[in-house]
Structures are given as structure tokens and as C-alpha cells.
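Exercise: predict the fold of this chain.
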Amino acid sequence: MLEIVYGMFAIVEMVDVVRIPPHRFNTNLKDAALTILKEKYESMISTELGYVIMIIDADVNPVGKVVHGDGSTYHKTRFSMLTFYPNIQEIVEGEVVEVTEFGAFVRIGPTDALLHLSQIIDDFLNVDVKQGMIVASKSNRVLRIGSTVRARITAVSLKGGAMGKIGVTCRQPFLGAEEWIREDVKKAEQQRAKVEEAKQ
């Protein structure tokens, strides 16, 4: 398996034997193999590959094998696919797509990560599921459906569940909703300017 990584996204090359059934014999061999590979791999979640987003290309051996009692041909195929593998401690950006009583779901790549209430901000939070928003009592910071969020991945489980499970946190400096980060950067710059003035 060859892998070219771009952050959480990767182009992975693999080899498989593709079974071409007789009803696909009138189709171009590569097109038939691509269709079968897409049906087999796309939307798959595995602990080794993560989320398989799409099959990109395939190189099919034109010489296939025939198995007694089966009218299909079997072709060795090298193919590449785009995958998404969430790594613990990695910083991600996503959009809040749902607000619940226990937190918010943030769309990252092809899936949603849970941002639990305890991981949003160090403040008392009021949740309004109907309005799709979470409001911090002291700071008045708001997280709502549609907010762009920067978070750190804290938990990944690609076993069991149909979508896998990913947990994220915003309780670290310069994480959270986009506007919160802008405010924090502005405050940090002001503090640095005051320190520089004091030195002079």
C-alpha cells in the first residue's frame, strides 16, 4: 500500500482482484472495474484506511483469470483512492451542523465530530436546541449552527459504529468559533504591545 498524505487526507494506492461479471463484458474493462471498486470501497470506514471518500483511478490487467463454474473474469487491479484519517491531537476546522442538549456536531471532512458541552469553553453554557445555539453566560460568546469552528481532535474510534466516532475540544488557546479566535488574537496583540511599551 502506497500512501501520499495531505494532512488528514491521503491518496492511497492498493491492489485488489476485481471480479467482472458477464453482464459487464460489453463495458470498457477499466470502467467496469472502477464501477465495481466504487461499490466495494467508497463510503467504507476502516481502522487502517479511515474514511474512503472516492476511488480516483484504476489500472486493470487486461489478462484475467477464469474460475471453473463461474462465468466471470478476475483481473488484478492497482487503484488509487482518496481517504480521510482523523488523527488525535490534529487541529481541524469545520462547521457546526447540529446543536443538541449535550453539545454540538461539527462537520469535518466527510463526517461529524462531537464537541461536548464540557469541551466548548470554560464558562457556564445555556443550550437552545430550537434556535440551534449555545451561549456562554459570562463571556456572551455564541456557538450556533453554521459557525466555523477550529478544534483539536481528542478521540477517534473507527470501530463498530456506521460512521465511526470522533471527539473534539475547543478548550485550548486560539480554538473555538472563528470570531472568538479573532478576539483572542486581538487581545494577545494588545497585551504584547503593552509589554513592548513597558520595555521602552
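Check your answer against the key: The chain has two helices and 15 strands.
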